[in-house]
Amino acid sequence: MGDPKKKAPAGKSKKPATDDERVSWKILRVKRRIKAGYYDRPEVREDILDLLLEAFMNGKR
Fold first, then answer.
1. CA atoms of 4 and 25, how far apart (whole Å)
2. Which of 8, 25, 27, 35 could bond 12 through an S-S bridge, CB–CB 3.0 to 4.6 Å?
3. 41-23-6 Cα angle (round to 5)
4. What are phi and psi of 8, to 5 degrees?
5. b/e per residue, 6-16, with b = 16+ CB within 10 A?
6. pTM recorded for the entire structure
7. Is the Cβ–Cβ distance between 40 and 49 less than 8 Å?
8. How far apart are CA 11 and CA 44, in angstroms?
9. In the 8-state DSSP scheme, what is residue 61?
């Protein structure tokens, strides 16, 4: 296995080396999607509400 901190080949992204890098990458992806209007679509909003409701109900048990 190669070192994850090395540069990735052209056209491929390197893998995050730490959990903090993974989390920050996910946050940046969500921010890009918000700016692009991805979450403004009705079917996506419905999925988000379903997931939030499920998470809330599982937390109440």
1. 15
2. 8
3. 120
4. -85, 155
5. eeeeeeeeeee
6. 0.42
7. no
8. 29
9. -
Alpha-carbon gap, residue 56 to 43, rounded angstroms: 20
Segments making up each domain of the chain, as ranges? 19-60
Largest interatomic CA distance in the chain: 48
pLDDT in tens, 15-59: 666 666 667 777 888 888 888 888 888 888 888 888 888 888 887
CB 2 within 8 A of CB 15: no
Structure tokens at 12: 């491929």
Calculate the alpha carbon distances from 8 to 27, 59, 61 in Å. 21, 40, 44
Residue with tokens 């995050």: 16
